[in-house]
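#structure-requests
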Amino acid sequence: MTHVYFDASAISKRYVRERGTIEVNHVFGRTPPDRMHLLIVGAGEVVSVLVRRRNGGLLPPAAYAAALTRFRAEIMNDPAVDKVAADVTTVRASLAFIERYSINATDALILRTALDLNARLAPAGDDVLLVASDRQLLSAARAEGLPAFDPERQPAADFDAAFTA
């Protein structure tokens, strides 16, 4: 079975219509909540995206409220969705990725925790697919051997090819 690990750049497309929204909605339609993972810090980034859109006039107040309510219901308040926390050991282990791939600290944590999850799931025959739109993170993940799907640049069929139920 494939587990999906979202970064904020991808998951925010679920709540703000933009390039890749259709593909992210497809991912949500195929992935049960108990196989969805999101770094908890990334949840703050999703809210930040919504606030920036609202403040910039790109997301009317009613649409902002609806998007935030939906995000809370689908992700934050769903106990089946894994909200991944990073402890000090994980943060330390992620630092090498910042230097190696020139990625930011949050992306390094996403990569480290996704790889750790993948290692824990592998003995049972499960795997992790990173869903992200950040090119540097995607490149780093692939360099580390972690499969990745970019909803902005890949069709839903590519997700289907990588996803096993």
